Amino acid sequence: MTVLACGMATFRSQARALRDLLKHPSWRGECPICEAPTRFIAYGEWWRDDLLCARCRSLPRERALMAAIETMAPDWRRLAVHESSPADRSVSAKLKAECPGYIATQYDTSVPFGARHPQGYRSENLEAQTFPDAVFDLVLTQDVFEHLFDPAAAIREIARTLKPGGLYVMTVPIVNKDGPTVRRAELGSGQVIHHLPAEFHGNPIDASGSLVTIDWGFDIASTLTEASGMETEILPFDDRSRGLVAEYMEVVACRKP
């Protein structure tokens, strides 16, 4: 690329950045993932998906997860970490790059459970994992538990694979807040039974998306504790300076005794 072409590319990039600043609400802060000063830009009205870090393009829930990890497991770079169903971006990319003990899994039936996909991830069913007992210090999921048919089995499996004192941290949209959790869909005789209209969220390995099976309330904490025996707490985040402002910003954390 010529010097002139490089100069034009830089100018266009700066022009786009300036256009974003003028068109969309934004403010300065420090991103928990970048660990550096940045600008948070709201590209739409639904900030949970639209309030991006200008540096790493992270979402508020991803920044909240990282903030929780730094608070509860500050030595995460030295830990054995399992993340189920990550997108290859943002906080997951940071963990993959900086934590030698990090392993990513996906629910991918094209690969035998326990086997590694050519793209690098391991195929696992979160509700019936092939990992041995007590192998991880930290387990993570991002917006996974609203897509499970048997969350009780999943949290028991997570507890089984955690070492004593191990930590599970997740983001999940708690859409019903103080209302009771509502089952949207369940399995019956091998078929999906819908109790509410079908709703889908994005899936990192399937363009058709993932069916939402549960609308969680704050009673998710007691549900997880009763199923797993782990202590559960819900961490609320509301910090404009770190870009932690949006709907459903709670992080759920479970500690194995």
Short recap of the structure:
The chain is of the alpha/beta class and 257 residues long.
Task: Provide a descriptive summary of the structure in words.
With 257 residues, this protein is of the alpha/beta class. It has one domain (60-255): Vaccinia Virus protein VP39 (Rossmann fold). Helices cover 26% and strands 30% of the residues. The protein is built from six helices and 16 strands. The chain has helices spanning 3-23, 47-50, 60-72, 90-98, 151-161, 220-228, and strands at 26-31, 36-42, 51-53, 81-84, 102-106, 122-123, 136-142, 162-171, 182-183, 185-188, 191-194, 200-203, 206-211, 214-215, 231-235, 251-255. A seven-stranded mixed β-sheet has the order 6-5-4-7-8-16-15, sandwiched between helices. Helix 5 links the parallel strand 7 (136-142) and strand 8 (162-171). It is globular, with a radius of gyration of 20 Å. The model has no long low-confidence stretch (mean pLDDT 93).
Number of helices: 6
> What's the oligomerization state?
single chain
CATH-derived architecture = 3-Layer(aba) Sandwich
Number of DSSP-assigned strands: 16
Specify the biggest β-sheet.
Answer: 7 strands, mixed
Beginning-to-end CA distance, first to last residue: 58 Å
What would you call the shape?
A: globular
**How much helicity do the residues have?**
25-40%
Overall domain count = 1
Per the CATH scheme, the topology name is Rossmann fold
Please compute the radius of gyration using only Cα atoms.
20 Å
Low-confidence stretches: none
Strand line-up of the largest beta sheet: 6-5-4-7-8-16-15
- What value does the average pLDDT take? 93
In CATH terms, the superfamily is Vaccinia Virus protein VP39
User: Helix/strand-derived class?
Assistant: alpha/beta
In CATH, what is the class?
A: Alpha Beta
Written as H for each helix and E for each strand, in order along the chain, the element string is HEEHEHEHEEEHEEEEEEEHEE
Strand content: 25-35%
